[in-house]
Amino acid sequence: MISDYESAVRFLLGRVNYETFRQIPYEQMRQNLNRLKQFLAFLGRPDRRFPIVHVAGTKGKGSVCAMLDAIAVASGLRVGRFTSPHLYSLNERFTIDGVPCPNCRVIEIVQSLEKEWTRFAKKQSTPQELTFFEWSTVFAFAYFAQEQVDLGVVEVGLGGRFDATNVCQPTIGVIVGVSLEHTEQLGHTLAAIAGEKAGIIKPHIPIVGGVEFCEGDDPRRVVRQTAAEQQALLFEKQRDFSLDKHSDGAFDFLWNPVAERDLTQSSAPVRIERLRLKLLGEHQKQNAAVALAAIMLLRRSGFVIADENIRRALATLEIPGRVELRQWQTSDSSVAIILDGSHNRASAEALLESLQTLNAERRFSRKILLFGSALGKDVVGMFETLLPFFDRVILSQCTSNPRAFPAKQLQETAKNVASMQKIRLPPQIEMIPAISDALQDLRSTAEKNSLICVTGSLYFMAEAGKICNGDIS
Fold it and tell me: I need a surface site. Which of 283, 299, 333, 414 has the fewest CB within 10 A?
């Protein structure tokens, strides 16, 4: 019986939830989406009642979604955004104009969907239950349709081709980038992973591509081939749009769509000058370029989005858990703390670049890493990238996620990486399995002008953030 917020959340989380499996059984997930489509059709296809930007990619897709959301809201549009996973509350997955779905609406929508599912299941000879992510996807579409949003920004959960969000018929598709992650599920090469991401490309629907060329194992070639097969115009970074950076950190966005040159009507070149990002990191500028290319296509579709709104949104946007810089009050001083959800080599490299830039500006006396990850993540790649930068490393583990990588195994992996790859281990590397104990240790021992970085997985970073939320301002 769904009677309050807690029971509504229990209903959703009580479905099969691959996010919490110790090993993601992708073969079970490699299913057609007919059951989900049938239920959406039974509901009257709420996903067809508003235009959608559908965003896939190994890394950066959450940031691109946040940028699209912020720019569209700044332009006066009513915007629904569906992303995953959440950091602190399930409501975060479903926002309208940046505001998480209120508890009262969660109750109403889950009650309604549960009743509709009961009616739907009675008409099926062998009804098969939806997974947690499929229910979440239906929830998002129903919520946004009921609230009559002007635009939906929808983030792919895993892969693309078999992802529940791929039932939508978007106005624009986006593939932010491709790197090695979830290799056991998506493939062991960039090209194979790109094939899964390119599964979101629909016939005749324009696609923005942030995928970069790689010699030999080339994911960009796969995206190009799929776009050609689907007769979808592909707008690529460095060919159709690019950045022109200034020495003071500002950048210009350049839009000159080569992809449209064979058309009788093509978009005119655009240059938006001296943009600034509040978000830290060079990688966020690259994400911004991809987001702005999608904005150019939204303009072409009739959305009114002024340059000044773009400028204001990017200059003020903050994203929790994306190189999130805060000040943490310790026993006798305050120290800088970075909360970041990096969980593979590519995102760790982007984090390192941000840390190096910040260290050059502030010259920290000590740099400390609090690290925890999940099974299946590229821990070796993250360690090779991050460990040499720090003076002290504390290895810990998430208590709320059954896929947590045990701290003892992290310690063994760090030693193996140091011996095999000949990287420098920090002078101090220790294991404190409980996050709360690790944070308490840091609070009592961190020196003035220290930098603490918490990373390794979104779940680990979020759990650490929950523990110290009362101390972070």
Answer: 333
- Looking at the fold, whether 129 and 196 belong to one and the same domain comes out as yes
Strand partners, 371: 395, 455
Distance CA 469, CA 398 (A): 16
Token pair for 311:
């400028």
Q: Are strands 52-56 and 79-82 parallel, antiparallel or unpaired?
A: unpaired
Taking only the tens place, the pLDDT of each residue in 386-443 is 999 999 999 999 887 777 889 999 999 998 887 776 677 787 889 999 999 999 999 8
pLDDT of residue 449: 87
Task: Find where tokens 């309604």 sit.
Answer: 112
CATH of the domain at 434: 3.90.190.20
φ and ψ of 351, to 5 deg: -65, -45
pTM equals 0.89
Residues 258, 239: contact at Cβ < 8 Å? yes
Domain that holds residue 413: 324-468
**CA distance readout (Å), 291 to 151, 162, 237, 286, 326:** 14, 24, 11, 9, 26
Is 330 found in the same domain as 236?
no
Q: How far apart are CA 386 and CA 453, in angstroms?
A: 10
> Which of 272, 288, 316 is the C-terminal boundary of a domain?
316
Within the chain, which residues score under 70 in pLDDT?
Answer: 17-32, 125-127, 179-188, 216, 261-267, 331-332, 421-422, 470-473
